[in-house]
Write a structure and sequence with these properties.
heterodimer; A: 333 residues; mainly alpha; two-stranded antiparallel ribbon; two-stranded antiparallel sheet; 15 helices; 73% helix; globular; B: 345 residues; alpha/beta; 12 helices
Amino acid sequence: MTTVTSAPSADRLLPAPRTRAHTAFQAVRRQPLLPVLVVMVLVFQSTTGSFLDAGNLRGIATDAAAVAIVAVPLALLVISGYLDLSVGSTLALGGLVAGWLAGEQHQSPVVAVLGALAAGAVVGAVNGVLCCYLGLSAFIVTLGMLTAVRGFAQQLFPLPLSGFGSGFAWLGGARVAGIDAPVVIAALVLVAGALFLALTPAGRHVFAIGVNREAAYLSGIGVRRAPFALFVVTGVAAALAGAIKASVLDSVVAGTSGAGFELTVLTAVLLGGVALTGGSGSVLGVLLGVLFLGCLQNGLTLLSVPTFWQQMAQGTALVAGAALAFFGPRLNR
Amino acid sequence: MNRFPSPPPSSRRQFLGLSGGTVAAALLGAAGCSAPGGGASSAQAAGASGTGAKTLTKIGLDYPFTQIPLYSALVKLSTAAGKKRGVSLVTTNDAASADAQAGNLRTWVAQKIPAIVSFPMVFEATESIAKAATDAGLIWVTYGGSLEHQSADIQFNFLKGGTLLGEAAAQWAQEQLGGKGKIAFLTDDTIQLGRERTKGMIDAFTKAAPGVDVVAREQAIDPDTGLSKARAVLAKHPDLNLVLGVTDAAAYGAYKALQQTGRATTDAKTFVGGQDGAAPSLLAIKQGTFYRASAALAPQDIADAVVDVPLAVAAGKANPSVQVPITLVGPGDTARIDVLLAQNA
């Protein structure tokens, strides 16, 4: 059996450089944050000399893992036209439940994590019922849940929990094939999210619901079921991130754990090009948004930038990133 | 035919009706629970402003930072301390917001809560409320500072707490590192308390151990931030010897970061210390790890002051203000650590 290959022709070879440039331009147009991230990394490496060290990259990846785990399902939720602002408090609740089960109740790490996931699922389900089935505003419902869940967590666990045991420490501290467990989990979540969006009918339905719910409904798409499921998954992911953070720190405090986390995650999602109005976005963009935030924070610390200058730099970079995400897709129109 | 996108109107009405009914019932219940014997009778018991001794039956504790663990311990211990002295305790929910705090305090003044202990988030903004309270004959105790219009205050020497930690770390560096090494400070420049602690800690350390290089000074008050900041510092300075935190929470994050780089928990060349006397840090000190010190406040001391100072004012005692002590605990202070842990339990 012979393989027949056509000889390269001048027509196929000559346009190649232009085609490659066009392809690269299209990639940049689709992900305008990518070149910004590359430039930022190069600047940080040249100024600090240690930004690209393995140890530092490991630290960035581990810090970013929790954000990525929540950002992916949250991005899907935003694409479908909803929003969840309660993830910071859900993260705290998940960490507390896991820590309590592992530490005070001496349960196995698996039971502890499952308990956390169940708590996150309950919060997500409440959000989902109120928003998807009763038609209440997701912004208001999840903002209310942000406060209510935090209060509930503080009522249940008013004092810090710590000392969760070596078994539970595996979740945050173990390495799988040389990679930290939280990073492996985040990678799995990212891959699952990308495959879901790209390859499954349900993924296409998420976009359809975000673009036009009524049209999606008339097309026979379950316009309540899919966002409800995404609310539950987002709650579960936030609780998982909480369990990971509790494991990494071997402690968790109801009042402060995950405080402001919802804004960090939402910022990463929006920087990654997910439209707050729903209907568009990608998991790759979310990954870039997460990495952008992680690298910026780490680089400014490495440069010993004073606190308030760091705040200014972070805010300015976020506005610039948002502008880029807005204008980037319009570059070649 | 078009049953979507809105849910059926009847079910939404039912839900709203049920919700409204539940909320109304809860409000009526709450009102019913709190109405009798509330501020009015207490205010009467406290009596009008005058020179003689008053009987105080109610104290309002306005502590805005409800998110920190100390809050729960403080409320629990203050309630118990008040109960022993025949005083009931009421609290606010300020949610770390100066605006919410001002609103809650004005409500209390209008309600004539006979004694208010308040930790002002913005001292200047609270002055007028304190004046209104004292003008109305109420007892006003300022927590964590002083106001012009007040009956007394509960003070903390946060500068001294930072100084104690800085001096202890410097002494350790001189003895264990020969006065050489690298230190990172986790600081807070956003509120007065943090600035005082930070200044005490850095000034005392750099004065007593000038040979140790200060390689970082990063804002961090919680474990997550302490962890990520310490990770970044360790990437640049893997041979970091000391980390001092403005809070135990931030320092505990750094402690975990150092462990994650492979440093043994008993490493002889590492020192981590913080301030507050938080339970996880106290446990780490007790276990003999390189988390070696905490400038600790005893919640019971604060709780006693919250009750005793207003009572002393009501009794007409001269100069009733108190200074709550801050003490440094280290590996040798296991008995003291056990006492602090019990108070935090």
